[in-house]
Amino acid sequence: MQVKLKLYLKLIETKRRDTKKLSRKKRDPKVGTGKKPKGSDRRLYTDENPKDTVSIKFATPADARATVAKVKKINKPYARKIQILTVGEQRAKVMGKTEVVAIFKKAKESLKKAHERKKKKKV
Predict the structure, then answer these.
(1) Residues 106, 70 contacting (CB under 8 angstroms)
(2) Number of domains in the chain
C-alpha cells in the first residue's frame, strides 16, 4: 500500500514539473514579438533587441551634445528621436543638471522645426 502511494506521489510530482516546463516554453518566446505573454516572468524593461538601442549619456554637457549629434544622425522616425531626447532631458532634470537639460530642449526644438519644414515641403 505504501509503495503504491509513493509511486503515485512521485508520478504527480513529475507531471507538475513537466507541465511547468511546457507552460514556460509556450509563454516566453526567445525572439521578441512586441507583446508580453500573459503570466510571463519577463520583466518590464528587458531589452529584446539590443542592436536597436541608442545609449544616452548626460553626465556632462559634452556628453549631452554627443548624444544629440548621435540622435540627429540615426535613421529612426521623428517620434523615436524626440522620445530619446525627452528621456535624456527628464533624467538630467531629476539630477539637477540644468545646462544639460537646456541642450536637450534646444535639440528637441530644432528637430521639431526641421520636421515641420519637411511636412510643409511635402504638402
Answers:
(1) no
(2) 1
